[in-house]
What we know:
The chain is mainly α. It has 5 helices and 2 strands.
Amino acid sequence: xxxxxxxxxxxxxxxxxxxxxxxxxxxxxxxxxxxxxxxxxxxxxxxxxxxxxxxxxxxxxxxxxxxxxxxxxxxxxxxxxxxxxxxxxxxxxxxxxxxxxxxxxxxxxxxxx
Length: 113
């Protein structure tokens, strides 16, 4: 995994662990060993990607995530992931936008490096 992806994953996990409390950029930066500016850029990227972040500026501000909005990482075998892809493809035009989004994520994960 690329360092930025690993760091953003760690950032999400830090926010999930502290949810629903706000966590400052300074605290997150210290925990992850990066600058506050790096945290701000990562938070902006995650927000732009659709992550349900709460951002509060000013004194006492920080970042939070609705821990109920995302599943923790799930370890699937390639066979399990392929079975899910097959099921979504079989439903075809009747599948929801959510199913199509999941399909794209699975296909991306199954791509050889």
